[in-house]
Amino acid sequence: MRELALNILDIAENSVKAKARLVQILVQARDNILTIRIVDDGCGMDAEFLARVTDPFTTTRTTRKVGMGIPLFKMAAEMAGGSFDIVSEKGKGTAVTATFVLNHIDRAPLGDLADTVVTLLDEDSGTDFVFEVRIDEKEFLFDTRELRKELDGVPVNEPEVLVFVREMIKENIKDIGGEKL
């Protein structure tokens, strides 16, 4: 994947498929390290599957025998001087953490985080998302549980809502120094 935001999208969509009720996404830049962490409360993985999950020929899909999302995310982190970790427990959920040297020549661009969030909301699976961006000491937090309360029954995937969310996320990321990402 050419942009890290697409890796985030892929893993968050895996969380939705794993019946997660809540997916937390953190993107943090501090001390020349970019950290991306996705945590869910989905069905999790057993130890045997977890041990093979970074192998591209391991997948839960029945339509094809290759799963590239997690292996590509791991490779992107390691190629950019970073690390990759995944922990999971059956029935409890999964946490994926990747770090990247921010100014490493081989670090993939972050991409459009606002579009990633909007794509997740457009599917309106009923899963809630907490999206947090921290840059040095500044942070922005978006929580769909709060959005749903404010919308008072209006679906989060209404076109007007998605346009508002996209612009709000872009503006807030810019306000906290998003150009560093």
Number of helix segments?
6
Q: Kindly name the structural category.
A: alpha+beta
The major sheet is characterized as: 6 strands, mixed
- Total count of strands: 6
Mean pLDDT: 91
Q: Which regions contain 5 or more consecutive residues with pLDDT less than 50?
A: 61-66
State the separation between the terminal residues, measured CA to CA: 17 Å
Return the string of H and E elements.
HEEHHEEHEEHH
The helix content is: 25-40%
Widest sheet: strand order?
Answer: 3-4-2-1-5-6
The global form is globular
| Portion in strands | 25-35%
In angstroms, what is the radius of gyration?
Answer: 16 Å
In short:
Helix content is 36%, strand content 26%. It is an alpha+beta fold and 181 residues long.
